[in-house]
Amino acid sequence: MTAATEQEIICLGCPNGCHLHCTSKKGHAVDVTGNKCDRGVDYGREELLDPKRVVTAVVKTTSSELPYVPVRTTAPLVKPLIPELLHELYQQHVTPPIRSGNPLIENFRNTGVNVIFTRSIAE
């Protein structure tokens, strides 16, 4: 029989910031306690089984006024793919004009996650 794994995390599912006590067994979350709302249970299970993050970064530009432009993912990305995405972003070199909300990368690694610009730069 496999021993249970225990982890304490702070929930980011709502403004309460509950201290969750999560117990998993054989890779399946079996118990989440310490939550003040139902979102805490969902957050704790996802954080243990399939953690994801929204990624923000900057990309080089050819603009003399703004040498870097901020970008972000349109949805949370699974943590194992984040270093790969950051590597790809830091290799980019974009030329204005750039419009906020326009995609830089679409459907990164077939995850359905896009990377968009979060600032506009005129020509």
Could you please describe the fold and organization of this structure?
The protein has helices spanning about 40-50, 80-90, and strands at about 5-10, 20-25, 30-35, 50-55, 55-60, 70-75, 75-80, 95, 105, 115. With about 120 residues, the protein is an alpha+beta fold. It folds into 2 domains: about 5-50, no CATH class; about 55-115, CPE0013-like fold. Helix content is about 20%, strand content about 35%. The protein contains 2 helices and 10 strands.
Q: Total strand count, please?
A: 10
Helix proportion: 10-25%
Largest sheet: 5 strands, mixed
Q: Into which percentage range does the β-strand content fall?
A: 25-35%
CATH class of the largest domain: Alpha Beta
Strand pairing plus helix content: what structural class? Answer: alpha+beta
Give the uncertain stretches in residue-range form: none
Per CATH, the architecture of the largest domain is: Roll
The number of distinct structural domains comes to: 2
State the order of secondary-structure elements, H for helix, E for strand. EEEHEEEEHEEE
If strands are numbered along the chain, what order do they take across the biggest sheet?
8-5-6-10-9
* Rg (CA only): 19 Å
Total of DSSP H or I helical runs spanning 4+ residues: 2
The overall average pLDDT, rounded, is 93
CATH topology of the largest domain: CPE0013-like fold
Overall morphology? elongated
Blueprint of the fold:
Layout: E1 5-10, E2 19-25, E3 28-33, H1 38-49, E4 52-53, E5 56-61, E6 68-73, E7 77-78, H2 82-91, E8 93-94, E9 103-105, E10 115-117
